[in-house]
């Protein structure tokens, strides 16, 4: 590195640092729809259709960022329109929670929004993606903390195929890495929060978002 390169390095440091190697993640956005009905505030949830990825899970409207999207906010608005038929004119976005990097390799941008009550009557649910929608009072989450569980994650440098043969994914021995990495490593424990509302189980990413939202008031 010479003096010119060093100056270029300093010049290119971001003023507002974001997420390193963002392109390696599944980039997505969700909308957290808050609806006021009879002076009470509710969150609007959807249950994913059984035949799609993560089918049966309860979540907020959202999905992957597409190259046509102008921003992650645009992604969130597009997804709620595609999934529930709720239009931009019935939505007011107030702000965004912190970005969340999920253990599964997804990077999620959550937006907090007020949805007009009239939008509920005009919803056109895409049954290919959504089994059903329902409302839960925000007070429920304030009064009922989630049950906490623990999962364990490990990094595997190899896998075993259907014939019982070892398939090397990362050649740790060939690369001469320490023996620690010749077998699964990490053993990282990950907290999982679970809410149970009338038999509907809300967990994973959605529970993380709810938990962070509740810290704001």
Topology:
Layout: H1 3-11, E1 26-37, E2 40-48, E3 58-59, E4 62-64, H2 72-84, E5 91-96, E6 100-101, E7 106-115, H3 118-121, E8 130-137, H4 138-143, E9 147-155, E10 158-160, E11 166-168, H5 172-175, E12 185-197, E13 200-203, H6 204-214
Parallel strand pairs: 1-7
Antiparallel strand pairs: 1-2, 1-4, 2-3, 2-8, 5-7, 6-7, 9-12, 10-11, 12-13
Keywords for this entry:
single chain; 217 residues; Nucleoside Triphosphate Pyrophosphohydrolase; three-stranded antiparallel β-sheet; 13 strands; globular
Molecular structure report:
By secondary structure, the chain is α+β, with helices and mostly antiparallel strands. The protein has a single domain (23-214), classed as Nucleoside Triphosphate Pyrophosphohydrolase, CATH 3.90.79. 22% of the residues lie in helices and 39% in strands. Strands 1, 2, 3, 4, 5, 6, 7 and 8 form an 8-stranded mixed sheet that branches. It has a 3-stranded antiparallel sheet with strand order 9-12-13. Strand 12 and strand 13 form a beta hairpin. The chain is globular. The mean pLDDT is 94. It comes from Halarcobacter anaerophilus. Its cofactor is Mn(2+); Mg(2+). Residues 25-159 form the Nudix hydrolase domain.
């Amino acid at each position: 590195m010479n003096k010119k390169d060093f100056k270029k390095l300093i010049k290119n440091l971001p003023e507002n640092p974001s997420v390193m190697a963002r392109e390696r993640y599944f980039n997505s956005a969700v909308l957290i729809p808050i609806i006021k009905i009879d002076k009470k505030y509710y969150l609007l949830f959807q249950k994913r259709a059984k035949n799609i990825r993560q089918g049966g899970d309860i979540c907020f409207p959202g999905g992957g960022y597409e190259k046509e999207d102008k921003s992650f906010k645009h992604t969130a608005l597009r997804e709620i329109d595609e999934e529930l038929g709720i239009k931009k004119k019935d939505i007011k976005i107030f702000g965004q929670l912190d970005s969340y990097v999920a253990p599964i390799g997804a990077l999620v941008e959550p937006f907090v929004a007020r949805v007009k009550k009239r939008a509920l009557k005009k919803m056109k649910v895409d049954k290919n993606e959504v089994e059903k929608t329902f409302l839960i009072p925000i007070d429920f989450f304030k009064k009922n903390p989630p049950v906490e569980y623990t999962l364990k994650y490990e990094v595997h440098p190899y896998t075993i195929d259907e014939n019982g043969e070892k398939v090397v994914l990362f050649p740790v021995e060939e690369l001469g890495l320490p023996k620690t990495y010749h077998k699964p490593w990490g053993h990282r424990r990950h907290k999982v929060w679970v809410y149970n509302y009338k038999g509907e189980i809300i967990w994973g990413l959605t529970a993380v978002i709810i938990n962070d939202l509740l810290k704001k008031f």
